[in-house]
Amino acid sequence: MSRIRRFARLFDQKRLQHEIDAEIASHIEEAIERGRSPEEARKAFGGELLQRERSRDLKLLPWLDSLASDVVFGWRQIRKHRVVSAAAILSLGLAMGAATAAFQLLDAVLLRTLPVADPARLFYMATTHVDRDGRQSEADSFDYPSYRRYRDNVADRADLMVIGFISNRNLEEGYNDEPDKPYWQYVSGNVFEVFGLQPALGRLFTRNDDVIPGGHPLAVISYDYWARRFASDPNVIGKSVRIGKDRLEIIGVAPKGFIGTEPGRVTDVFVPASMRVDALNRPGWAWFRIWVRPKPGFSAEEVRQPLQAEFERQLREGLQEFQPNLPAEYIRKYLSEQVLFLPAAQGASDAKKQYRRPLLVLAGLVALVLLIACTNVGNLLAAQAAARAREMALRVSIGAGKGRLIQMMLVESALIAAFASAAGLLFARWCCPIVVAMLHMPEDPLRLVLDAGWLGIGFNFALAFAVTLLFGIAPALRASGVKPMSALKGGDEPGSRGRALKALLAAQMAFCVLVQFVAGLFVSTFDRLNHRPLGFFSGPSVGDGRVVFETTAGRHLDANRGSDSTNAGRGIGFDGGLAAAEQESLDDFGARAGAGR
Amino acid sequence: MKRVDSLQGSLDLLVLKVLSRHAPMHGYAIMSRIEEIAGDVLRVEEGSLYPALHRIEEAGLVKAAWITKDNGRRARVYELTARGRKQLESEEARWKAVTGAVQRVLRLA
User: Fold this and answer.
1) Chains A and B: how many Cβ contacts under 8 Å?
2) How far is CA A112 from the centre of its chain?
3) CB A339 within 8 A of CB A308
4) Which chain A residue has the Cα nearest residue B49?
5) What does each of the 597 residues of chain A score in pLDDT, given as a tens digit?
6) How many CA atoms lie within 13 A of A190 on its CB side?
7) Please, where are the H alpha helices in A170-250?
8) From CA A274, how far away is CA A265, in angstroms rounded?
9) Interior angle at CA A365, CA A360 and CA A368, nearest 5
10) C-alpha dihedral over A387, A389, A390, A395, to 10 degrees?
11) CB A45 within 8 A of CB B44
12) Which residues are paired to A137 by β-bridges?
């Protein structure tokens, strides 16, 4: 209680001063009344100022008091040297903004956990895959007949879910008949249940909404799509949307914050998987991922084993369809393919795989830029501290300890870092969407929710703290290491000042060169990639009406089980799952083919 | 609240004792009373009087208030609290124990 009182007194120091003075004055009056002489009475006190200081320190929290006065003094210093402070805050703000933006990107693509129940026990299935040339890769897409077999195999111990690849199809008849191109995702009926989600409006799919092929013309729209496209109209339930030949009735709105399972893509409309009638009985047509949630009491491995057994059975079956006299080595590798359970807590998407390394490199670069900014500001402040040597010497000579001086300088640095952090947040908010816009491909935009929440705020605080220490320690140490005598005489300590400053400058130059070099490498690589020939034939080789493509990048698609050129052609189809670099080049190719013929 | 485990010096003890026997008094009166009883042996250093008073006030052993005296002037008077009374008892006991021990050593060593 008295701590609180003492803290509160910080803000009312005048009254405190007044009271103490009044008490001392009344004591002296009393002494005079009783016959002592005024001077003697005052002298007996031993210095009014000292008295006042002692009593004051008892009634306040001294360290907090010194902190408060440091903040006020630091603010005055900043305003006094406007130009330098502005330069420091701006340069640091840019760097911190870049760091925040990079963190937001990392969080949106790689780090953020899906807002579902028990994400740690969510996995998605993948199989290792060996192609004809013996190269290993991971395949995470499945066809419906396989899904049925897997699902029935482990029905007692896990929930298997169909999570379709998100695609972008035209909404032919929708609300207000405006043209629209929402993102669709086929999901099995148990998805919302397993994820533990509650509808924002209406209801969500249940297992019974996914039983009859083509018999559930229903749709669930995302919260964001509802707000964006339907203006949060509460009467959206029961309205219908049409795609292709299906007319789907909207039965509910997904909860706010659930944007699907693929970082980099945002789902607008969920449709039951059984509505994709053409695909339900086609082995080889892979259009979704399988997600797994083990039931309580079962470990992931206990679920994986029966699936692995079923997969091996499938492999052996598939072996029969293969052309004879394949090398034994290949057959051996093929039969030893594995079912993998990959963690799905942060979602699963191609964007994640694609952008993982570039984002990490970006983070590294941004860290370097931040270091440069810190050394820069550190230099500025150190130079300023050198100019304040006299002031420091004065403080030391009236009794300020080294710690006190360091505290004062660090508080100044902290103030600058705080302002820079605020500027950085604004900058990040502005530039992050721009960076995302630069990343995406024209037909397949990268859609991210750039809101890191509490993690982002915590990151900002930690960053500001680290930055303060980084650039503030050097000037603080310099300022507190002043020798009063020489400083007051007006002289400068020769030698040491030059060395420290030169070291800082050298570090800054080194970082700058490094960042420039790496950035230059990236830019030239990017440029070259843009103009790289993709190994297309200069003209189509037309067989019997079928066009055969072969791309250096896409050769692995060729090794579909029992593939022939039709499959290869279809494999390179225009589903959204394909990296758009190939899509674009196919467009180019088409143009060239048309023109060159 | 911070518990004062041992009064700093004996000044705090004397102040508390004086306040326990009298109606609320201001600092000067406390000082005179102590010197009056102690005679020439003890002299209260005025420089440490008010820090001591403020210290025990912060610790919750006494409470203070401004009053107006008969001659129209204001003074700040201190009064013992229940807590102060308890602390006084324990401090007095400790003091007696310590001085008793010192005396024994002087007598029997």
Assistant:
1) 56
2) 7
3) yes
4) A45
5) 567 777 777 777 778 888 888 888 888 888 888 877 777 777 766 666 777 777 777 777 777 888 888 899 989 988 988 988 898 899 889 988 888 888 888 888 888 888 888 888 888 888 888 776 767 788 888 888 888 888 888 888 888 888 888 877 655 544 455 556 778 888 888 888 888 888 888 888 888 888 888 888 888 888 888 888 888 888 888 888 776 667 888 888 888 888 778 877 788 888 888 888 888 888 878 888 888 888 888 888 888 888 888 888 888 887 777 777 777 777 777 777 888 888 888 888 877 777 888 888 888 888 888 888 888 888 788 778 777 878 888 888 888 888 888 888 888 888 988 899 889 888 888 888 887 777 666 556 667 777 767 777 788 888 888 888 878 887 787 777 766 666 666 655 555 556 767 777 787 788 788 888 888 888 888 788 777 666 654 444 444 444 444 444 444 444 333 333 333 333 333 333 333 333 334 444 445 444 443
6) 13
7) 191-195, 223-229
8) 22
9) 130
10) 130
11) no
12) A129
- CB-closest option in B47, B60, B76 to A26: B76
Q: How far is Cα A419 from Cα A125, in angstroms, rounded to an integer?
A: 47
Query: Residue A45 carries which DSSP code?
Result: H
For B72, the token pair is: 């129209």
- Closest listed residue to residue A539, CA positions, set A530, A529, A528, A548: A548
Residues A128-131: contacts with CB under 8 Å, at least 24 apart: A128/A337, A128/A338, A128/A340, A129/A337, A130/A330, A130/A333, A130/A334, A130/A337, A131/A556, A131/A558, A131/A559
Nearest to A106 by CA among A362, A460, A378: A362
- Copy the structure tokens of residue A98: 């870049």
Strand B25-26 versus strand B74-80 pairing type:
antiparallel
DSSP string, A327-370: -HHHHHHHHT--EEEEE-TT---HHHHHHHHHHHHHHHHHHHHH
Distance from the B51 Cα atom to the nearest Cα atom in chain A, whole angstroms: 5
Give how far B104 is from chain A: nearest CA, Å: 37
Which two tokens mark A334? 């093929």
Alpha carbon of A402: minimum distance to chain B alpha carbons (Å): 27
- The answer to whether A266 and A224 have CB atoms below 8 angstroms apart is yes
Sign of the dihedral defined by the CA atoms of residues A354, A356, A358, A359, in that order: positive
CA atoms within 13 A on the CB side of A466: 12
For residue A184, the cross-strand partners are A167, A269
Q: Which residues in chain A are closer than 8 Å to B76, comparing Cβ atoms?
A: 19, 22-23, 26
Indicate the pTM of the whole model.
0.65
E-strand ranges in A204-282 read: 218-221, 240-243, 246-253, 269-272
